[in-house]
Here is the input.
Amino acid sequence: MKSTPTRNSSKNIVDNKIEIYDTTLRDGAQTEGVSYTIEDKLRIAERLDAFGVDFIEGGFPGSNRKDKEFFVRATKMGLKNAKLSAFGSTRRKDATCARDAGIQSLVKAETPVVCIVGKSWDLHVNHVLRITLKQNIDMIADTVEYLKKRGLIVIFDAEHFYDGYVENKGFAIDTIKAASDAGADRVVLCDTNGGSMLKLVAEATSEAVEASGVPIGIHAHNDSGLAVAVTLAAVESGATHVQGTINGLGERCGNANLCTVIPNLTLKMNKFCVDEKNLKKTTELANFVSELGNQPLGNRLPYVGKSAFAHKAGLHIDGVRKVRRSNEHILPELTGNNTRALVSEMAGKANVLHVAGRLGINLENNSKAVSEILEELKELEYRGYQFEAAEGSFALLALRKLGRNTSYFELGGFRVVVDKRRGREIFSEATIKVKVGDREELTVGEGDGPVNALDNALRKAIEPFYPSLKEMRLTDYKVRVLDERDGTAAAVRVLIASRDNRDVWGTVGVNENVIEASWKALVDSIEYKLVKDGVTSRSVGI
Here is the structure.
């Protein structure tokens, strides 16, 4: 499928290797309608690292408290494959690097990599920054040199490079020379407005490769629908570093979609990006990021969309059954997707085996259990469940099919009261009755909302029996309406994220009643915690 990369010491990069720089947590977070929590960002970073990207851009530590806290926690994650990068800009026109708050925030982030953006279009220099071209060149050189002296890997993003190349080629090239001469490790050409055509990108990239003494990268936006195409054109012209986001998230029309770029580079252009085993997790990663961003994954997205390998025409189905490549440009399994016939969907047992194996559940020698899990998954998905970001719920489903008792208490009933009175904040209270073993517990919990109150009441009842629950906490709660046409009677999907001292996991519940959906996800989160800790159930008669 691809050739083995070899080391090229002069460029500090491997031949045939294309570096992947993921900016989902920064550029992707600028997507309209997306607002990641810190826990979301940590979970996504963990998945990106496991997937095998080379760089993870975590955000702009100088812009907000959330990003500052993210870097405090992320630098302690112990990433195995990726290097963590902080994003910022060149020093201000009226400040030295030592006195520039943005530059200092990059240093304080304590990441091994920093990515700084600087102007390469004279229009921006003259009319936005309102400085001379020389002043802009000095700002670039000063910033790169300052950060390099502090032992950082520095990536320079040449903002609006292709527009600048058209209007003042000499100046655009001078900006990237200034960065490379000052010690930048990578220079990235940005199609910031997303309007450049392929011929221009190919020509300008080739010239930049010749002019720069360091590896060249591409950062493309999708305003003309060409972000993936111009990214590939840049690689064909010598770029060895690619920036983009999972699912093409990003401001306006988004960024180059790495879930399309990586398979294209690997399967079509014989480049090395991620290992083959990780390439097979592309669809899983796309769904995971989609779920945490609380945005549906586009069915028609290449390689990872639900419809990417779905066939409705009878001729197509017949062709695929006889010779798969007759109507499929790749084997869908190469990116973790599967072939679907829209009349009767084909099964994907390999997906079940893969996810179960990742969770430590051995199903290899139990084909009956795999078939039963698959059938139940299909039924639950029909009802609105999604398990891509709910690994806890999936694990419990699999264990139950293997005959494992995952119930740790029996619910007698609960009541939730939400009270709002004039001049007072809204108040939530939950009363719950549960049975653990031969003991019944009746407890009351208060909270900021009904789910928080229910969680507190349940914890109060069962923590004396299962002390390890004290180290667990809920970190996020998302609700998605499944069919807006049903209005307030619509079914909803609730996704709950939880964590303890070691792991982060998600659980899911679906119901027309948001409290019932929340309850299902809440119970799964607790039961998964106890299962993974090896706690023996004390429940009887369940």
Summary: Residues 20-292 form a domain with the TIM Barrel fold (CATH 3.20.20.70). The mean pLDDT is 90. The two ends are 51 Å apart (CA to CA).
